[in-house]
Fold this sequence. Notes:
heterodimer; A: seven-stranded mixed β-sheet; B: mainly beta; seven-stranded mixed β-sheet; four-stranded antiparallel β-sheet; globular
Amino acid sequence: EIVLTQSPATLSLSPGERATLSCRASQTVSDYLAWYQQRPGQAPRLLIYGASNRATGIPARFSGSGSGTDFTLTISSLEPEDFAVYYCQHRNRWPPIFTFGPGTKVDI
Amino acid sequence: QEQLVESGGGVVQPGKSLRLSCAASGFTFSSGGMHWVRQAPGKGLEWVAVISDDGSTAFYTDSLKGRFTISRDNVKNTLFLEVDSLRVEDTALYYCARARYGSSFYEPDHWGQGTLVIVSS
């Protein structure tokens, strides 16, 4: 069973700063890695799939990178609406079992 | 406009069963897979299950296999989750979500607002 670890647990930044969030898998996961944003009181929103592909409608300031066991979500310049919790998620190739990481909270 | 609306949550006694529903509109429901994901109060996301576009194949997270059953009605554009032998630890907001277009088993890309299940005596 693959375990995802996210760091840091909390990231305290200011608008305009760059945010770098890490997701590490306990074993190689290829590029079946996605990132979600969840604002308080809202449903999650898919940001990145396939490790580096932005989902429809996601601003260019969000980017994903990495492969193997180490992945990164970067927000190039934080907007006020970006303060939220971010989850990485892995999909097993087959059977398609999904696992979420514990989340990173980005706050002011 | 794509919309997913969950219902069926509420306060339920431990040991009872519950069926959650998710009504889909604004997209071709029968063309894609569907997921259930849950979130306990103040906690992170936990993936529950996925079902193929035609309802013939489903997969579950190991820890919940046996008590949870995902199904769908493509005529009524509705997704279901049946939960048996409810436990206190099943208390959570249950989200339905559509699989990203292209495969029944891609990650969720469009989510409902959730239905809250509280298991308590």
